[in-house]
Amino acid sequence: MGRKLPPPAWIPPRPPLPQREPEEPRPQSLFSYGLFSLALVVGLVLGLSVSWALGPLPERNTEPFQLGEEDRKHYMIAIALEYQHSGDLHRALEKLVSLRPLGDPLQALADAACELASSDYINNESGVKALRMAVRMYTTQGRSSCAEPLLPAEDLPEKPAAASDPAAAPPSPTPPPTKTPSRRASRATATLRAVATSVPQRTFSPLPASTFCDTADRALIEVKIVDYLGRGIPGQKIRVRWGDEENVFLSGLKPERGTGYADFQMDEGISYSIDMPGASDALRADLITGRCYTESGRESLKSFRVTFRADS
After folding, report:
1. How is 186-207 classified by DSSP, letter by letter?
2. How far apart (Å, rounded) are the C-alpha atoms in residues 131 and 113?
3. How many angstroms separate the CA atoms of 291 and 271, rounded?
4. Confidence of residue 173 (pLDDT cuts 50, 70, 90)
5. Which residues contact 199 (CB under 8 A, 6 or more apart)?
């Protein structure tokens, strides 16, 4: 028979596992990252819109040439007003050049006065007076525009009747036949008075020209208009003539090169003469470009430097 197995040893029963208490259901969170992001964006947009509408940031460090078209006109009129009080034409021209006009800065002032005189700018007395100041500034420098005929004539004060004349008749209700000619005469008188009080034309003397050779500035006439202390003078007319042709340009239109700087591009094989019309005689030597070599041995075309210095 088979062998009997001993009875199994006694195994103690396992203790009962602790029962977990049922968890209370958590309240559902109302926080949503998507809604938070949307609210943040909407808040930023609304905040920026309100700040731009109610409290725009003030514009700072604006250069004159960065002004808008309408602001440029008023800025030029302000320059003319300052000139009438200070009489400093050099400073006024520097400020006009700082606007970086495309051509003659004084003619730009004249054109601005023409446009303002054609608008409601002259509907008040202060606008008329400001434009008259601008007209006096550019007309004394030989410029003109449509502003002069558009401005009302300056009314001269009427001469009071003599107190000793008992037979002085009361003023007639109808205008006398000489009223229109008198207004024209007053306008002519104002114009002549502005010319008579103008600053005398400066005179300049040309200094001997020097040459230089550069591959960047080939066949260039560099002109500098300076006062007796060597300071640049903007807005001065310079004339270059060759054959039957000529070209008149102004100093100071390239302020990065200097307030009194100007230049002219030459062609090879042509003789040029240079002067300041009405202010200086021509440079005695004619300027003709030709082949030259830089210090590094590179070939280029000869350029010239010409200086006109004020006599006083």
Report:
1. HHHHHHHHHHHTSPPPP-EEEP
2. 6
3. 15
4. low
5. 87, 89, 140
Find the helix packing angle between 125-139 and 69-86, rounded to 10°: 70
Q: Is 279 in contact with 237 (CB distance < 8 Å)?
A: yes
Phi, psi for 141 (deg, rounded to 5): -105, 15
Torsion of CA 169, 170, 171, 176, to 10 degrees: -30
Q: What is the pLDDT of residue 247?
A: 94
Alpha-carbon distance of 102 to 96, in angstroms, equals: 11
Q: What is the pLDDT of residue 270?
A: 95
More confident: 138 or 13: 138
Task: Count Cβ atoms below 10 Å from residue 189 Cβ, excluding itself.
Answer: 13
Q: Are 308 and 206 in contact (CB under 8 A)?
A: yes
Question: How far is C-alpha 122 from the geometric centre of its chain's CA atoms?
Answer: 23
Half-sphere exposure of 131 (CA within 13 A, CB side): 31
Q: Kindly report the pTM of this predicted structure.
A: 0.48
Start-end of H helices in the chain = 33-54, 69-86, 89-97, 105-117, 125-139, 147-150, 179-196
- The 10s digit of each residue's pLDDT in 48-65 is 776 666 655 555 566 888
What's the average model confidence in pLDDT over 133-158?
81
* 95 and 80 Cβ atoms separated by less than 8 Å: no
**Is the per-residue pLDDT at 278 higher than 60?**
yes
Pairing outcome for strands 261-265 and 271-275? unpaired
